[in-house]
């Protein structure tokens, strides 16, 4: 993680976040048009907060936390930058912020059988079976 800069996301980061979201190898969007610029803006300005990681001035990862329901809306790392602890650090920023707002339980969903599925389990999130294609995870404040 040497040289990584973590900071709060702004609307100027949306093109890079969208690029990363569309570049991932797992948890790919079946319909890329499903996640709109307006959704990114809403999570930055109204419904939540986002963070980015930059290395050498290039955004390589991002996360979003949803203040309306205490969930993690997004956590993505650009291929080639995985395995460096970026996702874990971004998740800590997002969960810390949500807990500071008063949530006692946080939620997220991810694709079943993906690396992300194992990632959340290793970090102590409780896995709840979903519809087969996706699984849900819950993190209680007491577990942190």
Highest CATH level, the class of the domain at 4-102: Alpha Beta
Question: What is CATH's topology name of the domain at 4-102?
Answer: Aminopeptidase
Report the C-alpha radius of gyration, rounded: 14 Å
Largest sheet: 4 strands, antiparallel
Which blocks of ≥5 consecutive residues have pLDDT under 50? none
Order of adjacent strands in the largest pleated sheet: 1-2-3-4
How large a portion of the residues is in β-strands, by DSSP E? 25-35%
Shape-level CATH architecture of the domain at 4-102: 3-Layer(aba) Sandwich
Structural class: alpha+beta
* Secondary structure tally: strands: 7
Report on this model:
- By secondary structure, the chain is of the alpha+beta class.
- It has a domain at 4-102: Aminopeptidase.
- Helix content is 29%, strand content 33%.
- The chain has helices at residues 14-23, 37-45, 86-100, 115-122, and strands at 4-8, 48-55, 58-66, 71-77, 105-111, 126-129, 134-140.
- Strands 1-2-3-4 form a 4-stranded antiparallel sheet, sandwiched between helices.
- Strand 2 (48-55) and strand 3 form a beta hairpin.
- The chain starts with a strand and ends with a strand.
- The mean pLDDT is 89.
